[in-house]
Design brief:
By secondary structure, the protein is an alpha/beta fold. It is built from 19 helices and 14 strands. The chain is globular. It comes from Capnocytophaga gingivalis. InterPro entries: Aminotrans_II_pyridoxalP_BS, Aminotransferase_I/II_large, AON_synthase_class-II, PyrdxlP-dep_Trfase, PyrdxlP-dep_Trfase_major, PyrdxlP-dep_Trfase_small. Belongs to the class-II pyridoxal-phosphate-dependent aminotransferase family.
Length: about 425
Amino acid sequence: MKDLFEHIKTNKGNIGRWASHAEGYYVFPKLEGELGPHMKFQGKEILNWSINDYLGLANHPEIRKADAEAAAEYGAAYPMGARMMSGHTTMHEELEQRLAKFVQKEAAYLLNFGYQGMVSIIDALVTKNDIIVYDADCHACIIDGVRLHFGKRFTYQHNDIESFAKNIERAKRLAETTGGGILVITEGVFGMRGQQGKLKEILSYKEKYGFRLLVDDAHGFGMLGKTGAGTGEEQGIQDQIDLYFSTFAKSMAGIGAFVAGDKEIVEYLKYNLRSQMFAKSLPMIFVKGGLKRLEMLQNMPELRKKLWDNVHALQNGLRSRGFNIGNTNTCVTPVFLEGSIPEAMAMVNDLRENYGIFLSIVVYPVIPKGMILLRLIPTASHSMEDIERTLEAFSAIRSKLEGGVYRAQNAALEAEMGTEK
């Protein structure tokens, strides 16, 4: 018998293998100062494109005031205990009611964190006889939830309706054998590539196949739709989504999440979500803060307009300079380049040290080998000057990448880590 930890010491995983070169700079970086487009990294001011504060609420004076007042009134502990036992309040119910009304559902239920909430939702909804069909690019929280499923699951190619059709047919045939039902899971907005999920197309199969649809709209809630109610509103099919999920960590710049749907189903989830039943209730700071954030999201459409003005300026500017930003149709702005991981590291170092620009870098295994994805998240707080500065910097780094500058800079690291892109 071997030591359980033996393989961990010799194989730290696809990302962990880079830890000695990356930690503290490329991964686990420390951003300091007030949240916003201009922060500090390692003592230097940087232009930040790496926080999901879409509407600019994170450091808004009204939000800071509401959070401070909630902390002064309730402290950080109240209420104590799980909601089912001793952590339930009228204010939790009020936020749920307002969220349900906003996303046009009968009822909603608050979740402490989006990640654990989604894992638990999937676990609670399906039995071993049920079949799950989900998009291959779904977020890790969905993947982990699916992994808990003891029954069969089918993955369809990302946003590929032909692939979806084949897999929903397979699911139906199997469900007829097991006597189970079918749960389809997708995202309203895919956070890496910025594409809206093809919800309307998926729903065109619903009557024939009788599935239920769960949508994770973390990157759509607050940004898309006439009122900001999300991707379902944007596509005109919100009423056909069986369970609508979103987190507060993006447009609401807070902590927590919610799931909304028919009252009967939400009531079932209240009594069966293990990640909520056996966890401390969402503290009042975040509940009262959530009410203020939702109020501003609903009553200040100028924030959403400023966000989209910035999105269009950034994305149009990148396209006009010949950059590949895929087919994003949301705020998420990916820039796809070709190169190795060491080249990507050298490029990001150049951006931070010489251009003062901080953004997220995504490489294999999240995207295919040989590709580099630089992800920018425009917010309502960015300025046109920020955008122009970034466009100029991107033109400069592309020339260096294509000219082999970054490969030469990290040739030793390339050799050390092997030929893997």
